[in-house]
Structures are given as structure tokens and as C-alpha cells.
From TrEMBL:
Gene3D superfamilies xref list: Glutaredoxin (3.40.30.10)
Keywords: Signal
Domain Thioredoxin: 25-165
Signal peptide segment: 1-26
Pfam families, A to Z: Redoxin (PF08534)
Keyword set includes Signal: yes
Classification via CDD domains: TlpA_like_family
Originating species: Comamonas faecalis
Name of this chain's protein: TlpA disulfide reductase family protein
Amino acid sequence: MQTKKWLVAGALAICAAVGTAVVMNAGTTKAPESTFVLLDGSRQTTADLRGKVTLVNFWATSCTTCVAEMPAIVATYDKYKNQGFETLAVAMSYDPPSYVVNFTETRKLPFKVAIDNTGAVARAWDEVQLTPTTYIVNKRGEIVKRYVGAPDFAELHRLIERLLAEA
């Protein structure tokens, strides 16, 4: 009977250790290597984002939630841009480039905007199909959070502040 209790206790300890390891490493998968084609024709890679906390937002001009959240994304960028924060808005492949350019210019989006005209970037980032889908990437190039739909911006700001404070 005593041996059975020790086996159960040992199994519970192993489960707790594995659970802790899973929680500690949750959300820290490496951001996929991608090349983003920006509206000005220049290119930026995932590697170029290292050293900054980055918000990568997959969106479309036809997505009402995307359009509604854009002012909050602009405000977030403006709040943290001088602290090592970057924002990259990636328009989906089905979004007509002329619509993306018009939206970007009329709303005066202050951050980088890319067009994923082949869908390769969305496929690389975990097969993104729903918009908006937003990723937060830490300074080491690891995805720490994924939002499908509009994020809770108060929570998002707390996360960004925590990540900016990391070495």
C-alpha cells in the first residue's frame, strides 16, 4: 500500500513538472521566417524585426472588425514606437492592392503595411485565414500571443509594456 502511494505521488510530481514546463514555454514559438513586401516596394523579413517588440496584424479592407480596430492599433503604435515597438499590418491576398493603398493613405497609417499578394505570409504564420489575426512577437523573435478578432487593448498594452521591459 505504501509503495502505491509513492508511485501516485511520483506520478503527480512528474505531471506537475511537465505542466509547469508547458506553461512556461507556452506561446514562445519562433516567428516564421517571412518576407513582407511593403507598399513602397521594399522588403522586410522576420529577422529584421528582432530586437523590437512587434505587432503583426493580418487584416483586410473588407473586414469590418479590422477597420474598426485600426484606430486602436494606430494609437498603440504611437504610444510605444519610441520605446522599441514596431507594427506591421499585412493585407490578405484577396484584398485588392488599390484598396489597401487607398485605406493606408486616407487613414494615414503611420506604420509599415505589407500586401501578401500570394498568401505565402499568411500560410507561414499558422495558415491565417480569419481577419483580424494579430501576433505579438518579442525581441527574440518569438510569438508570445495570438489574437483572433480584436484584442483587448488594455491587456495588449500591459503585455507590450512587459515585453519592452525585458532585456
